[in-house]
Amino acid sequence: MTNQAHVIKTQLPNPPPPADVLLKHVHTAVENLKGVEVVEIDVRGKTSVCDFLVIASGTSTRHVKSIADEVVRESKKLDCQPLGVEGEREAEWVLVDLGDVVVHVMLPRVREFYALERLWTVGDEPPESRDSDIR
C-alpha cells in the first residue's frame, strides 16, 4: 500500500467565475470560520499558475481543515469545483486550487516556516529612502 496524498481533480466551469467574484467568496468562507491573519497577494505577472493567493491561518488541524472545506463549499455556490485540494489528511497546510485563486490554509508554525508572504512579495515595496545616507 502506498502512502499518497488525497487529491481531488475536477475542472472549472466554462467560463470560470471572475477572480474578484471568487475572491469575495473565498474571503466570506474564511471569515465565516474565523480564519486568522488573512492575506491576499496579487501574483499576476509573477507566475502563470494563478492570479491571486489567499493565505490564512487556523488555530488547529481541525480548524485548518474546516476553513478549507468552507472555501470549497463557497466555491461550489459559483458552480466552481476546485481543481485540486491537497493536504487534508494532515491538515497542517491545506491548499485549495480554484484556478485564478489559490488558497493556503495553514497552522501558524507551518506558515511561519514557509513564509509564503515574504516569498511572493519580495521586491514589491519600493526601497526605503536613503536620504539620511546622502549628505
Automatic annotation (TrEMBL):
The keyword Repressor applies. Keywords: Cytoplasm, Repressor, Translation regulation. It comes from the Bacteria. Its main location: cytoplasm. Functions as a ribosomal silencing factor. Interacts with ribosomal protein uL14 (rplN), blocking formation of intersubunit bridge B8. Prevents association of the 30S and 50S ribosomal subunits and the formation of functional ribosomes, thus repressing translation. Interacts with ribosomal protein uL14 (rplN). PANTHER family: IOJAP SUPERFAMILY ORTHOLOG, MITOCHONDRIAL ASSEMBLY OF RIBOSOMAL LARGE SUBUNIT PROTEIN 1. InterPro entries: Iojap/RsfS/C7orf30, NT_sf. The keyword Manganese does not apply. NCBIfam families: rsfS_iojap_ybeB (TIGR00090). Gene3D superfamilies: Beta Polymerase, domain 2 (3.30.460.10). The gene is rsfS. It is found in: Cytoplasm. Transmembrane segments: none annotated. Pfam families: RsfS. This is Ribosomal silencing factor RsfS. Belongs to the Iojap/RsfS family.
